[in-house]
Amino acid sequence: MLGTGSDRWLPARGNRSPRAPREPMEKYQVLYELNPGALGVNLVVEEVETKVKRVIKQVECLDDHDANKALQELMPLLKLRHAHISVYQELFVTWNSEISSPFLCLVMEFNKVTFQEVITDKREAKEIIDAEWLQNVLGQVLDALEYLHHLDIIHRNLKPSNILLVSSDRCKLQDLSSNTLMTNKAKWNIRAEEDPFHKSWMAPEALSFSFSQKSDIWSLGCIVLDMTSCSFMDGTEAMHLRKSLRQSPGSLKGILKTMEEKQIPDAETFQNLLPLMLQINPSDRITIKDVVHMTFVSGSFKSSCISLTLHRQLLPVSITDMLLAGNVASILEVMQNFSSWPEVQLRAMKRFLKMPADQLGLPWPPELVEVVLTTMELHDRVLDIQLCACSLLLHLLGQALVLDPEAKVPCNQALTSTLLRCLRSHPEEEQLLVMVYSLLTITTAQESVSEELQSAGLLDHILEHLHSSLQSRDVCVSGLGLLWALLLDAVIVNKGPLEEVPDLISQVLATYPADVEMAEASCAVFWLLSLLGCIKEQHFELVVALLLQSIRLCQDRVLLVNSAYRGLASLVKVSELAAFKVVLQEEGSSGLSLIKETYQLHRDDPEVVENVGMLLVHLASYEEILPELVSSGMKALVQEIKERFMSSQVSDTSAFSKPGLPPGGSPQLGCTTSGGLE
């Protein structure tokens, strides 16, 4: 929490640095102040190190709780990825000691020109905005807004000054707001009195602090109206018109008639479109998809925005099948020539799924994979394409590994970034989530990309879905598998999020108490967490109990047994509390009797015996436990292990050259510590 009397802060970034400055504002130099917005002050700043200009919106909040609530609401926006959305560069809360108030700071992309400047210039010159340009940028705005609405994100603050013109023919939405900020009644009333212009873009229901996707439609309708009428209406008239439409939608008819009389380009389309966007009742307004259809599908509008081609007429199935009747090379050529036709891409990938392995160019056909990834990127919002593409990639991986278990699958940035984008575009689709997790697990285990995926927030993503999808077995198994793969070779920069994993896995295992595969995945994660020092002392007893429980569940699973005993040995090595938990009687038997059972079952498996022996040696390092070990017959067991495996690979230190276990770093059976077992 933020405290009074000091400059405390809570940062949030897409890529977090382990060495953040004490006060985030220290890394920015304020250049000048822009006109205040509806919610706060806008500062043009320059990063001290990079000299890059940014805009920081400073929003005064009611209290610490209000500031942090707004911050948490805005956090998901850092993960947005769209060509026509300007994502926040950084979010943080500062405390202003002079007025004893917290401020939420939103760091945005800086650009001098917005739609507001374009409209103002044309209004002053009484010129009509070029029709081709308007269609192009409108297409980009529609594509960006459709992307947000697809993710159930509401812009809430859509107006011309929040649409950047980053080049002559390319724009970006910016300054997305949160529910907490936009429902601050006192702040809105004060700002509305100071400058009613800002409030004039808001939908009727938004004035009562009710926001929905239809509120964005109203605001977009106001923007389109202003852009098409700026050549014959001054700014004050336009503002009064927008405000009057909330009570009297009939006032729009006169403006639409004037547009026709003055031969405004595409006046007929706007005459049909605007009344449907500017309905007083939100439920009567059309959706963003309807707007796209009226302008770019049934209408004649054109835009450079590729995604809008998703709404065009479908290619007949017979023609598609005829085009896809050839071999791999010819099908890839068709996919490239018809890249903007989703139905062609989908049928092509389904055709690949049915092809024999010897025709696919295995073990890993780079050209095919490249085309599939491009298709996923171009059609990232088409769920069927994402599902089919992931199925195909998993099919290719499976076939490749069947042909050659040692085959290396290149895990390049294109693959990982495409899969991560897929997760962001379809956050609630469990089937897709499981497939993406599986793909990332396989590829991450082969290439060292763990740190890159950590920086992209994948650890947080996995933990969030393990928590929210406990009832989905497939999500839990695949999530634990990917978590293991990320931890395998990772340099963990921030161990904080991992501290909650023991409690989380405890919930998973409680939900699936007899699921051997779930227990196996959990033990593997616990082992790596113990080696990385990510299990806190208060969780030692819990983790030991869960590891012993998993061994009892299925002792014949070698992978489970090895992971569990390695995890136990790692914890016992650093904690006498963990050691006592192993020795104490529970559920009618102690961990020592379980060790005997495991040894008898796997007595001819050198790796299992080695891990059992490693646990025994660490237990023997505690004087208080030695009597219990001796009375339980552990001394005889250790002696038997020494006699049977002294000259075998059990005593070979290379057996411990696993991730996280340095060569020579393991204890040797028979060593004595404080009067040990020998």
Automatic annotation (TrEMBL):
Keyword set for this entry?
ATP-binding, Nucleotide-binding
According to the UniProt entry, its GO molecular function terms are: ATP binding; protein serine/threonine kinase activity
Q: Which InterPro entries match?
A: ARM-like, ARM-type_fold, Kinase-like_dom_sf, Prot_kinase_dom
Region annotated Disordered sits at: 1-21, 653-678
Q: Where is the Protein kinase domain?
A: 28-297
UniProt cross-references to Gene3D superfamilies, sorted A to Z: Leucine-rich Repeat Variant, Phosphorylase Kinase, domain 1, Transferase(Phosphotransferase) domain 1
Is ATP-binding included in the keywords of this UniProt record? yes
ATP-binding as a keyword of this entry, yes or no, is yes
Q: Which domain of life is it from?
A: Eukaryota
Query: What PANTHER family does the database record attribute to this sequence?
Result: SERINE/THREONINE PROTEIN KINASE, SERINE_THREONINE KINASE-LIKE DOMAIN-CONTAINING PROTEIN STKLD1
Q: What is this protein called?
A: Serine/threonine kinase-like domain-containing protein STKLD1
Q: Which organism is it from?
A: Saimiri boliviensis boliviensis
